[in-house]
């Protein structure tokens, strides 16, 4: 499962830039797009690695 910790997220947008199919910014925070929670796209791991505050979790 792909998720974003809203408490940690600073809304920098790096995840959406790296993986726009899965992540989007809304009201200054990143969210996983509806239906993408189980995405296995390679860019999800890249987005996790690019997050400066480690807000993206892959379970």
What is the CATH architecture descriptor? 2-Layer Sandwich
Oligomer: single chain
**SSE pattern:** EHEEHE
Q: Considering DSSP H and I runs of 4 or more, what fraction of the residues is helical?
A: 10-25%
Please give the alpha-carbon distance between the first and last residues. Answer: 5 Å
- Give the class from helix and strand content and strand pairing: alpha+beta
The averaged pLDDT comes out at 97
The residue ranges in which pLDDT falls below 50 over 5 or more consecutive positions are none
- How do the strands of the widest beta sheet line up side by side? 1-4
Plain-language structure description:
There is one protein chain. This protein is an alpha+beta fold. The protein has one domain (2-58): Alpha-Beta Plaits, CATH 3.30.70. Helices cover 24% and strands 24% of the residues. It contains two helices and four strands, in the order βαββαβ. The protein has a two-stranded antiparallel ribbon with strand order 1-4. The protein has a two-stranded antiparallel ribbon with strand order 2-3. A hairpin with a 2-residue loop joins strand 2 (23-26) and strand 3.
What's the quick description here?
By secondary structure, the protein is an alpha+beta fold.
Produce the secondary structure layout:
Layout: E1 2-4, H1 14-18, E2 23-26, E3 29-32, H2 42-50, E4 56-58
Antiparallel strand pairs: 1-4, 2-3
Features:
59 residues; 4 strands; 2 helices; two-stranded antiparallel sheet; two-stranded antiparallel ribbon; alpha+beta; Alpha-Beta Plaits
């Amino acid at each position: 499962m792909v998720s974003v910790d809203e408490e940690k997220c600073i809304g920098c947008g790096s995840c959406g830039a790296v993986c726009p199919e899965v992540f989007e910014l809304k009201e200054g925070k990143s969210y996983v797009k509806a239906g993408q929670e189980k995405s296995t796209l390679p860019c999800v791991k890249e987005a996790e690695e690019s997050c400066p505050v480690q807000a993206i979790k892959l379970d």
